[in-house]
């Protein structure tokens, strides 16, 4: 049975929802780009923003050192630049998945959005490449370790054509549902 589309809350309502959803965790500001949709996610729970930074550090450490993906040794590659528009796209989807617990952790949004449509809505001017998702990992190192055990995820993280990334972590107030979203991209040539 198709889901009934739901209106997304305004930026102020979303900030309040995320604040309530994460208990007393203060909100922090971040540069999300100029797209109107990004106003919804430019304030984010501090603990989630810190987790996002930790995941970026873990991904960049992996990229620097290289890894074995599907039995093939892949050399290290350069770090990824946190790109405001991709960061926005990732947060839009993470927030949507938390607000809609009936949804599986999936690439489709509650409004039918896709990784590409979210990157476009955030005004990303590069080429959006992949969206990596995970649920219920408590820390960045455990998440990267799990992605290393999945050949497609491992190869995506070590793709040497990538230069941009957006990362989001969102969770319910009780912490009984955690969602991670990583959106990668590259510059247009």
Instruction: Tell me, rounded to a whole number, the average pLDDT.
Output: 84
Largest sheet: 4 strands, mixed
Q: How many β strands by DSSP?
A: 8
State the secondary-structure class: alpha+beta
Any overview of this molecule?
The relative contact order is 0.20. This protein starts with 10 loop residues before the first helix and ends with a strand. It is 37% helix and 21% strand. Strand 3 (67-69) and strand 4 form a beta hairpin. The chain has a four-stranded mixed sheet. A two-stranded antiparallel ribbon has the order 1-2. A two-stranded antiparallel ribbon has the order 3-4. With 189 residues, the chain is an alpha+beta fold. Helix 2 (46-65) packs across helix 5.
Care to give the gist of this entry?
It contains six helices and eight strands; from the N terminus they run H-E-E-H-E-E-E-H-H-E-H-H-E-E. It is an alpha+beta fold and 189 residues long.
Topology:
Layout: H1 11-21, E1 27-29, E2 43-45, H2 46-65, E3 67-69, E4 72-74, E5 81-82, H3 84-99, H4 115-121, E6 127-135, H5 140-148, H6 151-157, E7 164-171, E8 178-186
Parallel strand pairs: 5-7
Antiparallel strand pairs: 1-2, 3-4, 6-8, 7-8
Helix pairs in contact: 2-5, 3-4
Describe this protein with a few key phrases.
alpha+beta; disordered N terminus; 189 residues; 21% strand; two-stranded antiparallel ribbon
